[in-house]
Model the fold of this input.
Amino acid sequence: MQIDISKAVSFSSPEGMKQNEKELESLHKVLVDGTGKGNDFLGWMKLPAGADSAILRKIKVDAEKIRAQSQLFVVIGIGGSYLGARAVIDCLSHPFLPLLPGRKDPVILYAGENLSEDYHAGLMEILDQYDYSVAVISKSGTTTEPAIAFRIIKAHLEKKYGKEEAAGRIYAVTDMQRGALKKLAEEEKYPTYVIPDDVGGRYSVLTPVGLLPIAVAGLDIEKLIGGARSMMEQCLASADPEKNPAIRYAAIRNALYQSGKPVEILVNYLPNLYFFTEWWKQLYGESEGKENKGIFPAGVGFTTDLHSMGQYIQEGTRLMFETILSVENSGKELRVPFMEKDPDGLNFLAGKRLTGINHMAEMGTLLAHVDGGVPNIRISVTELTEEILGELIYFFEFSCALSGYLLGVNPFDQPGVEAYKKNMFALIGKPGFEEQGKKLRERLK
Ligand code: PA5
Done:
């Protein structure tokens, strides 16, 4: 991957950028030595090096079994427990997989990442029709949304296959010690994977949390880890911004923030990057947004969103910068056909590939937005493969940790998430929350 900041630096102060690079040099040491905030959650940093081949083998064996017996695979999880898997799977899968005749890969479906009754009832209608298996993924094992979805799906599976066969179709991915899910998995003898204690949810895609669903989708998890490993080596080896792209990215995005740009928009030009953007938003939003600080991470998919958000980005309040995630080549080839009489005037494009036209849209937009006062950082890769996604994942994680340190926050906790949970528990009548429930209901009158 390459990172180009030439269309962003002039919007920040050169002194600010220099100062950030200097501070990041010491923070790199703090991170690598494990002496900073949240240092009991640094397991992600060495995951690609320590990727235990016994676990990878077990994942591959289980994935083959699941693929053989399931047309659908339901991933139950929320936040860091599903976004990484979905990001990689969506990037590398056929965009219309469910409709592909003779497809070999199971379709991956998601549950417990929302509380919609229609969504889950609709999912049950589909699960009635197909053979399926399930991964229930929760580090804490107590998160309400996936716990409710799991109750519903477990009951459905047991009705459909009987308790014994159902137990062989449920894969639990959870913490070693804690939580109801671990206890249930032991009692019911579900095949189980452990999420390492020192890896937080949003940094867990390279553990079984992400690797099991990714392998079930038919993707090469060793290549994914391999890509992450090469970026890990680069990120750990040097704090020089010329050699370490994670330092470069952290330095410029924070310099822009300090120069009055509190919003970062991750821009893609491929719809299959939608969930990569969602993963990135969660990673940066939960890691940095605390103590009344942090860049607000947003996402757009161009050219689609040029017809919705484009106007605002070009001419609205000047509060944002863009980071483009640019992919040079596409896997498939499709050219614009020639049309008799040229009714739409587009015959000058006849024979041209869509990817080339998409790139010109990207370049034209980049220059227009820069002219409109929007700094642009450009991260480019040659194509989307498991290796390159592994590199990008590690790059963004490493840079996020450094950015959090530069901001002075703990990039590995998420204390703010508790506030909504407490209110929800109080309002749905969870034992122990009665008093708070009364007070909240008063306020809602
Ligand atoms: O990054 C995080 O830690 C969170 O987003 C969690 O992944 C999310 O809240 C789900 O938690 P759990 O896996 O414990 O169900």
User: Anything to note?
Assistant: The radius of gyration is 23 Å. The mean pLDDT is 97.
